[in-house]
Amino acid sequence: MKNYKKVYAALILAGGLILHGCNGIFDELAINPNQPSMGAYFTSPSAVNDAVMTMYGYMSTQRCLGASGSKTTIIRSDEASSNSDYGKPGMFGADLNASYYTIEQPYTLMYTTASQASYIIETAPSVDFSGNEELRNAYMGEAYFWRAFAHYYLLINFRNISPIRQMPRNGDDYVRPLEKPAAVWNFIQEDLSHAKELLPAKGYWDSKNAGRVTKASAAALLGKAYLYRSGIESYYGEDKTTFYSEAAKEFADIIDGKYGAYDLTNNYADNFDVAHENNEESILEFQFLGDVDNAGFNPGLATSGLAFDSRGLMLPGAGVGYEGVVHNWLYNAFVNSIDKDGNTDIRMFSTMIFNDLDANIHLRKDAGGQSVRLKGPGGYKWEELYPAKNGKEGFATVSNPLAHPFKAGIKKGIDCSMPTQTEADGTPKLIGVGAGVKEYVYNQPRAHGVNWRYIRYADVLMMYAEAVVSGGAQASDMTPLQAVNKVRGRANLSDLPSVTMTDIENERILEFALEGHRFYDLLRWGKLSRRFAELQESDPNFKKFVSADDFKGFVTNKHEWLPIPINEVNSNPYITENNPGY
Questions:
Q1: Which locations, inside or outside the cell, does it occupy (predicted)?
Q2: What tens-digit pLDDT sequence spans the chain (582 residues)?
Q3: Residue 336 burial (CB count, 10 A)
């Protein structure tokens, strides 16, 4: 499903990016003889498929989850910092306001996706599928799924939203009152229940359609919605009803194989590279294209507009001004996680780039007894990328001095086997040699094309354990303890004798670091404000990676949510004030 060439054609036919508050756009399209109407577009199964694929395109474009949404999701946590403008909403500085464009872009595109989904839901039943109801149901299920996901993303990030419950027919349909979060949760859960019923099980889609959602995708997101709703609303909502048993049941159905066989990959690292995308652990995976030649940021071009942009994830020293670092508490958490053979937790090597020659790192041995080293871009080791000077450690030689206090850079989202810049024969390009040491400079950023495995089977196991430990009924023969130990077992960690919520919280740090879940874990556990206050007090370098005085600190009762974009506030008379603090 990496070939999205049809997506933008479908997007254009569908009317382009539909923005909120654009009164009259539908009237204009109706009288434009060069613009096909939406009604004329939905005339065949292939046309419906093009419309469905457009929703995947909206999600994967750089202005949605490819850059703006993904960096905001990842960097807002306590795990890492970025000086990319796409990561700035997570740096809690002066730039975090209702006008900031990397907040507005995914907001708009999520609503665009929901509008497209609603049109499919209302129109596909009238299209002639020549008796192939399974295919019609699959397309309808995808529409229900992506409408639910769009609202789920909006709800957990912006809190106060107004759902699109039907196809918008004119500009006024985009101006709707905000709804209570409980009503939005109900809407999401209803859509996902429809999606689960209509979508095919694993194995229906062929290899050309790898990455399209299935019943397990819907069940996993539905369980996640039940789990997140239970925690978030307990701390921030008026309706504090919990749904832990419902969440456990959805996860249990996946664990028990109701929708097909899912399992952990043998190698943890297979979840974060290009070669092993859409593997047996993948349940919901956003598809991205790689591009080594066109590093320009040009949404709308197939060569770069549907790519996972490297900006915001590049390593210190990349020389492009878009770098990311891991906070030292997370580095230390991995250093302190030792497996049954006395080695450093293998997951650390897929999560961050760091000095693996440090005395605190215990390297495993290969079959020949050689230490297995961590390799960075181009296959180079730490000392080749960051040669030490004057006895300093960490990123001592990096030109950006703000990187110096940090011990690691972000690795997830970067496939280090793929060259950043290549010679004509495809080999990595060295920029120069200094002091007898090769100095590899990432002269030009690239879109690595690493898919975002948004929900993995490991997450289903851990969320199942959390739901039951939090009070839900055990819905599978697998116990919460067995689920957690299965995840730990892949990392060769010792089995826990019993499992508590603290154990689950600690294991989620190690298993899912830098995958975009941590902020929302803290949010639903009611620990977000306390955690940020603790790190601001104990770590003088926490979030200090843009400028010395840019970080303003996490503000309780404000930074739990993003501001509603100013364009939406100005165009919707039902919004009389923004989220608290903005």
A1: Cell outer membrane
A2: 554 433 333 333 333 333 333 333 334 433 444 444 556 667 899 999 999 999 999 998 878 888 888 888 999 999 999 888 888 889 998 878 999 998 999 999 999 999 999 999 999 999 999 999 999 999 999 999 999 999 999 999 999 999 999 887 877 777 889 999 999 999 999 999 999 999 999 999 999 999 999 999 999 999 999 999 999 999 999 999 999 999 999 999 999 999 999 999 999 999 999 899 999 999 999 988 776 555 554 433 333 334 445 555 677 765 555 678 999 999 999 999 999 999 999 999 999 999 999 999 999 999 999 999 998 876 778 887 777 665 566 676 676 788 889 999 988 888 877 655 544 444 445 545 555 544 444 434 456 678 899 999 999 999 999 999 999 999 999 999 999 999 999 999 999 999 999 999 999 999 999 999 999 999 999 999 999 999 999 999 999 998 767 888 999 999 999 999 999 999 999 999 999 999
A3: 11
Pairing of strands 432-434, 437-439: antiparallel
The set of residues, in sequence order, having a beta carbon less than 8 Å from that of 353 and lying 6+ positions away, is: 315, 374, 376, 382, 385, 408, 409, 410, 411, 416
How far apart CA 7 and CA 15 sit, in angstroms, is: 13
**In 150-269, which ranges are E strands?**
none
Torsion over CA: 12, 13, 14, 15 (sign): positive
- Tell me how far CA of residue 68 lies from CA of 87, 88, 113, 141, 554, in angstroms: 7, 10, 16, 27, 20
Buried b (16+ CB within 10 A) or exposed e, 222-232: bbbbbbbbbbb
- Give 336's contacts (C-beta < 8 A, 6+ positions apart): none
Rounded-to-integer distance, Cα 54 and Cα 56, Å: 5
The answer to whether 539 and 142 have CB atoms below 8 angstroms apart is no
Give which of 17, 6, 13, 55 is closest to 38, Cα–Cα.
13
Q: What is the pTM of this model?
A: 0.90
Cβ atoms < 10 Å from Cβ of 536 = 16
Match 């974060």 to its residue by tokens.
272
Residue type at position 224: K
Q: Which amino acid is at 148?
A: A
The backbone region for 379, taken as left when phi is positive above 0, alpha when psi lies in -120 to 50, beta otherwise, is: left
Query: Which residues have C-beta within 8 Å of that of residue 64, sequence separation ≥ 6?
Result: 58, 105, 106, 109, 110
| Residue located via tokens 């299920």 | 141
